[in-house]
Structure formats: C-alpha cells, structure tokens
Amino acid sequence: MENNSESKNELTQSEFKKVESENSLNLEYQLLDENEEQINFASLKKMPEFPGGLDSLTKFIQRNDKFPQGFTEYINGKVKSTFVVDTLGKVVDIEIIERLRKDYDTACYKVISKIPDWKPAELANNKKVKVKFLLPFKFVTEE
User: I need a surface site. Which of 8, 11, 36, 76 has the fewest CB within 10 A?
Assistant: First the structure.
C-alpha cells in the first residue's frame, strides 16, 4: 500500500466523471491510455462492467467493508481511494489518497484488493482501455 500522504500525480475531484447509478455507491472514473494519460470520455464505447452490475459491487463492498476489529473510539470521516480496472479487467494500482487512520485506511485497501475481475472498458474502435476509479469510504460511528 502506498504510504506517502502526497502522491506524485495528485488527483483533483474535477478530473473524474461521476458514474451514473441509482445505488448509494459514490463512484467516479477517468479513462487512461497505455501511458497513463487521460483519454476523452466521448471516445468511450463501453464502461467496465462489474459482474452483476453496480448494485452487486455495492453489496460486495458492504459485505466486505468492516470496521477495524476492537475499535473503541468513535470515528467519523472518509477514506478516499483509487484503483484501476486494467485492459484485462483486473483491479490494480490501488492507492489510498485521503487518509483517516491507519487501521481504517488498511481496511479500505483490503476491500478493494478483494474486488473480483470486471469486463474491461472499450473505446469506439474496440480497443480495451484502463479506467481509474475514485471510491470514497464514509465511516460514521454513533456514541
């Protein structure tokens, strides 16, 4: 897991496009070419597909997103992460870009590392491309 709080390629919210979804998953994405350069969204033919769709991804995350064991403090906040679905549909390049606390950051990293393969994205010319996702985890505990 990336431990630097500063990333060499700092991302801003405006570089990502929101995934249109009716579920509670707050997922955003950007298209990347083989040189990790951003591609225009207009050239996208097909988004990467999680098996069962975004509702299944939401359920997967909810099933696997566990508070760290033995937590005794009330923690409220977000962990922001990014990951790439590569041209083979594999989840790679997982990074925590906004931290909350080490145990929570690690829990989020572990959830993403368990995400199964997707169907990769395609451009209009049928070329498969990488898609980078921004995924925030929101933690709210009650007293």
Answer: 8
Number of helices (H) and strands (E), helices first, in the chain? Answer: 2, 8
Angle value at C-alpha 10, between 19 and 36, nearest 5 degrees: 70
Length of the chain: 143
User: Which residues pair with residue 84 across a beta bridge?
Assistant: 92, 132
User: How does pLDDT run across 6-32, given as a tens digit for each residue?
Assistant: 343 444 444 766 665 455 678 888 888
CATH number, domain of 53, equals: 3.30.1150
Write the DSSP symbol of residue 11.
-
CA distance 61 to 54: 10
The DSSP annotation for 74-130 comes to --EEEEEEEEEE-TTS-EEEEEEEE-S-HHHHHHHHHHHHTPPP-BPEEETTS-EEE
- Positive or negative, the Cα torsion across 29, 32, 38, 42? negative
Residue at token pair 């991302």: 11
Domain encompassing residue 94: 23-66+75-140
| Residue 136 within any structural domain of the chain | yes
> pLDDT-based confidence at 70, cuts 50/70/90?
low
